[in-house]
Amino acid sequence: MVSDLYPFQGRYLDLPGGRLHYLDEGKGDPLVMLHGNPTWSFYFRNLILALRDGYRVIAPDHMGCGRSDKPDDARYEYTLRRRVDDVEALLEHLGVRSRVTLILHDWGGMIGMAWAQRHPERVARLVITNTAAFHLPRGKAFPWALRLARAGGLGEWLVRRFNLFATTAARVCVKRKPLSDEVRRMLLSPYDSYANRIATIRFVQDIPLAPGDKAYEIVSAVERNLTRFADRPMLVCWGERDFVFSVAFLEEWIRRFPHAEVHRFGDCGHYVLEDAGEEITGLVRRFLEAHPLPAEGRP
């Protein structure tokens, strides 16, 4: 369904467990935009509109999110590994095997960088926004609200019965000004029932905190191998008023990539593209123009 705020023609890929919805807009070198929880490709709408005139923009909705199917646990395993498999299947289906710029937010950063670890030669540039590709930075406590949701029981019931995770995020993840009613409705619209909120809770429950958690070794491997991408141009745009992906995460990115181009938005929150969309769109366009890809692929 096309709307004024989301004027795109969606496409679908059949995967084990359900249909994956994605956008494939424009032509040129591929920009792969990966969202996190509880957003969907709608979060990137303005960036897609601004860049599709010169690039091929690919933005999937992770399974259980946006306009993708929302299978139950019997049909789909809501784990990091499965998310990475889905991205890999989509890009193979689309023939995207080189010259990729990853544009990452929230848990999309871990998904994207885990895919990148499988195919480092395919990654040309990186755009990082309030995300991680490593374990919790030293001294960073896991937020109590996420710990409650992760534990199941009452936390899971609140998330799935009242959509507590997504509705709270729509309120606290913007800081410059509240979301308009229409934007808020669009962000929340995929998660309109107990069954359709399964991904929002499973994402949280899959966050690895200790060895033995399903995603722990994947995150550890991504963290160990981040140096593979030290020579890639990187743009970092960060909302500093993010209580989950706090400034401690930004400092970890800077420590690992001291040559990255970094822009801090001190009055912005986790949904930094909602708070500072125009500024970031200009920065991304200038970054891509400043680091064009040579004919053979990687810079």
Task: Explain what the structure shows.
The structure is a single chain. The protein has 299 residues and is of the alpha/beta class. It has one domain (11-140, 210-290): 3-Layer(aba) Sandwich (Rossmann fold). 37% of the residues lie in helices and 17% in strands. It is built from 12 helices and 8 strands. The chain has an 8-stranded mixed sheet with strand order 1-2-4-3-5-6-7-8, sandwiched between helices. A hairpin with a 2-residue loop joins strand 1 and strand 2 (18-25). Helix 1 (45-51) packs parallel to helix 12 (277-290), helix 4 packs across helix 5 and helix 4 packs across helix 8 (198-205). The radius of gyration is 18 Å and the shape is globular. The model has no long low-confidence stretch (mean pLDDT 96).
Short key terms for the protein model shown above:
299 residues, alpha/beta, Rossmann fold, 8-stranded mixed sheet, 37% helix
Along the chain, the helix and strand elements come as EEEHEHEHEHHHHHHEHEHH
Question: Which topology does CATH recognise?
Answer: Rossmann fold
Structural class: alpha/beta
Please count the helical segments.
12
Strand arrangement across the biggest beta sheet: 1-2-4-3-5-6-7-8
Give the tally of β-strands. Answer: 8
Question: Spans with pLDDT under 50 lasting ≥5 residues?
Answer: none
Summed up, the domain count is 1
Largest sheet: 8 strands, mixed
CATH superfamily: Alpha/Beta hydrolase fold, catalytic domain
CATH architecture: 3-Layer(aba) Sandwich
Strand content: 15-25%
- The span between the termini is 38 Å
Query: Helical amount among residues, as a percent range?
Result: 25-40%
Evaluate the radius of gyration: 18 Å
Mean pLDDT: 96
Shape summary: globular
CATH class: Alpha Beta
